[in-house]
Design goal:
It is a single chain. This protein is mostly helical. The chain has one domain. The chain has seven helices and three strands; from the N terminus they run H-H-H-H-H-E-H-E-H-E. A three-stranded parallel β-sheet has the order 1-2-3, with helices on one face. Helix 7 links the parallel strand 2 and strand 3. The longest helix is centred in the first third of the chain and has 14 residues. It starts with 9 loop residues before the first helix and ends with a strand.
């Protein structure tokens, strides 16, 4: 039986994965979109580069699916006290390599998953259409603000 956390908001999970994989570096191996596409599609490195050049302005489905299915356990997240989402976070350039940060594709829309991170004390969020989002986090005892 798996002890993995079940996230309801994929964008919240992406923020957690970014923290674990690219900031704390405890979730390994780090995904590199070029190497990942090369292996997934059985391409040469130059072919993978061409694919990214062509498809990298939109979500690369295999990458998003990989992150969606990545197992995160309670033990992995126990050291996360802060999440500071930023449009320049490494994970976003893996999912959409040439993302310009000008839309809300990675915005967290609910605080429901905050309970999965028992030690989370503060979060800085990318813009969201959900006007009550900050209050939702604050009601859970988590300091929250917009980036």
């Amino acid at each position: 039986m798996s002890n993995q956390l079940i996230f309801k908001d994929l964008n919240f999970k992406l923020a957690v994965i970014n923290e674990l994989m690219y900031v704390q570096e405890v979730l390994q191996p780090k995904l590199d979109v070029y190497e990942f596409i090369e292996k997934q599609r059985n391409l040469t490195s130059s072919e993978a580069y061409g694919v990214i050049e062509e498809e990298g302005y939109e979500v690369i489905p295999e990458v998003l699916e990989h992150f969606k299915n990545l197992e995160i356990t309670p033990k992995m997240v126990e050291n996360i006290e802060e999440l500071h989402m930023d449009g320049g976070d490494e994970i976003y350039s893996q999912v959409i390599p040439f993302w310009d940060g000008e839309d809300d594709v990675f915005s967290v829309n609910s605080a429901v998953d905050a309970t999965l991170l028992s030690n989370l004390k503060s979060i800085s969020l990318l813009y969201s259409e959900n006007d009550s989002l900050l209050e939702e986090f604050q009601e859970k005892g988590i300091e929250a603000d917009w980036l």
